[in-house]
Write a structure and sequence with these properties.
Blueprint (H helix, E strand, L loop, with lengths): L1 H4 L7 E3 L8 E2 L11 E5 L3 E6 L8 E5 L27 E6 L2 E4 L17 E11 L2 E10 L2 E10 L9 E10 L5 E9 L11 E3 L2 E3 L3 E4 L6 E4 L10 E4 L10 E6 H6 L23 E12 L4 E10 L3 E3 L3 E6 L3 E3 L5 E10 L5 E9 L4 E2 L6 E9 L4 E10 L5 E10 L7 E10 L4 E6 L5 E2 L9 E10 L5 E9 L4 E3 L6 E7 L4 E10 L4 E11 L7 E10 L3 E6 L16 E14 L1 E8 L4 E3 L10 E2 L7 H7 L6 E7 L7 E8 L6 E15 L3 E12 L2 E2 L15 E5 L2
Length: about 700
């Protein structure tokens, strides 16, 4: 089991202190809570999860304050739960390779899910912080599937308030073989005291067994018992941002869905009278995500929402209600649904009822119309009707807009008018800032280990809505490149309004001098906003220098003077030398203090440096170390008393290096007399062009010559 426990933490889970948030209570004011429920509440609803030994993990939803504009929907159920007991009548089925498992603890005394199989608890229900929000989380191992249930608050699409429960299942195949896994969520809906209120889906008020396939599902459904005096308005979401649309939805009676763990008794046209029990209406809903093949280690999430809905209502002889999303994200959505409910609440039949919608500039109706009329015919007393329109965005990119719906009848003296506002949320807008070092940057180029410059870019969302899938990328056309392990494209993920994130690349500098351009681009792949690119420059300088340094064991340096007779190694170095194919170096030394050791390479003699040695790739291609040459000529002391050494190097068949730093040669001298003596470069030419001799103390070059110290 340890294997499965280790795999639960695939989201950002943070336990919450029990004293403040984890509530295992016997009673909560206003909520019918079981003895061992874990609850999560806010001002609108409460989510409770059964934490007892039976029916563990099953959940219910009730109102607390409900709709803040009303006082008659407080402390009312949205999912059935008998007072004093834990949730037990709504349950979730996971089909794994044809075997139907009920999520959570066993139910030996409960009808709902009695026929199912049960798995092993991995994480008991508890309140945990997930990505910054509190959720009630539980995990079970069901066959090959590790399944985590997360319940938390979400914003209702029609009220705009956090009065909705988000129901999330995270399913992972933890076996070493492909596995076919599907999910069913059964909700035992109940609106206040009404256990059989009609489901209102699109233009239908449904009171009998009905099914919908995925493509025919609207964005949301609602349920309420009365348009004029709705006790509770329930709403579920089939489609929307972050929602996983189900493949199928079935509306039926609770008894049939309680007995059938996956397949169940479904009779189109049969009313919602509870099967096998008392003769009373008892509606329920099942959402199916059909089985699909999960590869080993594959994980998927299934998300739906259920809670409170919002309707704008005008009451009279003809009562009229309209609902639509409270807001719409203009960057990701191009339309939204408007549902209109009409009920004859007068004293007789209403004749030739018509409903007309008009939208303002920025919105349009199909056919590029600003108004549209639907005729319903005669509407008998008490009868209801539903009408839907799809409203399209037509240039609206931000701000609040108001549309109106008007209902008329031939024998109605005045039209009934209701309006509703929708907030058009402006798109996310990304801004990029790059932290560029001020002034010139002096570099030291080494072809074996090029210098690296950190490039820091900060991306901020300065728009009105979240950017869901932000990707930032780096591009440099010349002078720098990223290593193979440093990806040019980085996924930031979601950036909420005013949120920012910084990314750092380490660019290898290739020895180019001048203003090196590079571009950082940020884009939100989840919306239709244009990418944002910012170009900046690194003002680089790689000065060319040649210099000498004490090498070998360090004998001759100021901290380790050479003894008379000891060998002193002097390295001839090149720094940032460009287009190095052939090279000539002449240096001077005082033969009274040093004697140049001539002879074959080794401890005594000269060694060629790495600038004239092939790389591993060049060596493999040529089958050896050939392809370059270094010759060293000793010139005896002249009239100035100084002897000279001339070094000629040629990369020949290896080809010129565009820019390079490294060792030209290593020379050996024998110390002859105590004192201090200097070696200096007179000539340093690359391909016939002279190269500046290093000044005494540049930023990265300390000397052009070298002083040798010889002990008495």
């Amino acid at each position: 089991m340890a294997r499965y426990l280790s795999r639960v933490a695939y989201r950002t889970y943070k336990p919450i202190a029990a004293a403040c948030l984890v509530l295992i209570v016997a009673a909560v004011a206003g909520a019918q809570t079981g003895a061992f429920d874990i609850v999560l509440r806010n001002d609108y609803i409460v989510i409770s999860v059964n934490a007892s030994d039976e029916n563990t993990g099953r959940f219910a939803i009730e109102t607390t304050g409900g709709d803040p504009t009303r006082g008659d929907d407080d402390n009312q159920p949205l999912l059935y739960k008998q007072g004093g007991t834990g949730p037990r009548t709504s349950y979730t089925t996971v089909r794994v390779d044809g075997v139907d498992y009920v999520f959570g603890g066993s139910s030996p005394s409960e009808r709902a899910g009695f026929a199912g199989n049960y798995g092993t608890m991995v994480q008991a229900p508890t309140i945990i912080e997930v990505d910054g929000d509190q959720r009630i989380v539980a995990t079970w191992l069901l066959g090959n599937a590790l399944v985590t249930q997360e319940l938390g608050f979400a914003r209702s699409s029609t009220t705009g308030l956090f009065d909705t429960a988000e129901i999330r299942y995270i399913v992972e195949n933890v076996s070493d073989e492909p596995s076919e896994i599907g999910l069913r969520i059964m909700l035992d809906t109940m609106l206040g005291a009404n256990d059989g209120a009609p489901f209102r889906v699109g233009e239908q008020a449904i009171l009998t067994d009905t099914s919908f396939l995925g493509p025919s599902l609207p964005d949301f459904w609602q349920a309420f018992d009365s348009l004029t005096e709705p006790r509770v308005i329930g709403q579920g979401t089939f489609r929307g941002a972050g929602i996983t649309p189900p493949d199928r939805v079935y509306l039926s009676n609770w008894g049939a869905l309680a007995d059938g763990v996956w397949d169940f008794s479904f009779v189109p046209g049969r009313d919602f009278t509870r099967l096998g029990e008392f003769n009373e209406l008892d509606s329920a809903m099942a959402l199916y995500w059909d089985p699909v093949v999960f590869q080993p280690g594959e994980r998927r999430e299934y998300v739906t929402q259920y809670g409170l809905g919002g309707i704008s209502i005008v009451r009279g002889a003809l009562s009229l209600g309209i609902t639509s999303p409270a807001s719409i994200d203009a960057a990701r959505e191009t339309s939204f649904p408007v549902v209109v409910y009409v009920q004859n609440t007068g004293e007789g039949t209403l004749l030739d009822v018509a409903v007309r919608i008009c939208v303002p500039r920025g919105l349009t109706l199909p056919g590029n119309q600003s108004c549209s009329t639907r005729r319903l015919g005669d509407l008998p007393l008490g009868r209801e009707a539903q009408v839907t329109w799809t409203v399209l965005l037509d240039g609206a990119v931000g701000g609040e807009l108001e549309y109106t719906v008007e209902a008329t009848a031939e024998n109605l003296p005045e039209p009934v008018l209701v309006s509703r506002k929708i907030d058009i949320l402006g798109p996310p807008r990304l801004a990029v800032e790059i932290d560029v070092p001020a002034g010139k940057i002096e570099g030291f180029f080494d072809r074996w280990n090029p210098p690296k410059q950190p490039i820091v870019a900060t991306v901020k969302n300065v728009g009105a809505t979240a950017a869901k899938e932000v990707v930032v990328s780096f591009n440099a056309p010349v002078g720098m490149e990223l290593s193979a392990v440093d990806k040019a494209e980085r996924l930031i993920g979601e950036l909420r309004p005013d949120e920012s994130w910084s990314v750092t690349w380490y660019a290898s500098l290739l020895g180019y001098t001048g203003n090196l351009p590079f571009t950082v681009t940020a884009v939100d792949r989840d919306s239709n906003i244009a990418p944002v690119s910012v170009t900046a420059f690194l003002d680089m300088i790689f000065p060319q220098h040649g210099y000498l340094a004490v090498g070998g064991s360090g004998a001759g340096g100021s901290d380790r003077p050479a003894r008379v007779g000891e060998v002193v190694a002097i390295d001839v170095q090149a720094l940032n030398v460009r287009r190095i194919g052939s090279l000539i170096v002449e240096l001077t030394y005082d033969p009274k203090y040093l004697r140049f050791v001539e002879g074959p390479p080794g401890l005594f003699g000269a060694l060629r440096g790495d600038l004239f040695m092939p790389t591993a790739e060049e060596r493999a291609a040529r089958g050896g170390d050939g392809g370059s040459s270094v010759t060293i000529q000793h010139i005896p002391a002249g009239p100035d008393g100084l002897a000279r050494i001339r070094i000629e190097g040629d990369r020949a068949e290896l080809g010129a290096l565009n820019v390079a730093s490294g060792k030209v040669a290593s020379l050996r001298f024998v110390a002859l007399a105590p004192g201090t003596t200097s070696l200096n470069i007179e000539v340093f030419r690359v391909g016939g062009e002279p190269v500046a001799v290093a000044p005494e103390a540049p930023s990265q070059i300390e000397r052009h010559g070298v002083t040798v110290h010889i002990a008495p």
